[in-house]
Amino acid sequence: MISLVKQYTVFLPNKPGALHSFIEIFAKEGINIIGISSEIHDDSGIVRICVETNEKLSYLLTRAGFTTLETTMLSIILPDRKGELCKLTKLLADNNINITSIYGTTASNPSRLLLNVSDLDKTIKLLKEHFHQTNP
Fold it and tell me: For 103-114, how does the pLDDT look when each residue is reduced to its tens digit (9 = 90+)?
């Protein structure tokens, strides 16, 4: 299954409790987090969260004091089998599509990948042709 999801990126201080304050906003609103990644650089960090909703949440984050960047990401459910990620990345590379961000899980079968790509429309078309039906 292929769908579009929202990713929110924020800068957080690198200190205990900062991530909790951010995550708590989603919990209080009953919004399921389907992916999270972070990078720490000195005294601050960048956190990216993907959520299962098409509702815009930037206003919630702004109201809580966070500056956020909202990005549309692809959520792709793939079988947890050897070679599936290789097949996907080859398809995109062969069609000159750059993957600018990727994270996911293989903790269960099927697995979920979250992608940011250089050409969203072209990627969706290719995935429809070579993988599963899409539900953007």
Answer: 887 666 666 777
Query: At 60, which amino acid appears?
Result: L
pTM: 0.76
State the residue range of the domain holding 104: 74-130
pLDDT tens per residue across span 77-102: 888 888 989 999 999 999 999 999 89
Q: Mean pLDDT across the chain, nearest whole number?
A: 86
Identity of the residue numbered 91 = L
CATH number (domain holding residue 35): 3.30.2130.10
Distance CA 77, CA 14 (A): 32
Q: Which of 59, 56, 49, 52 is CA-nearest to residue 8?
A: 49
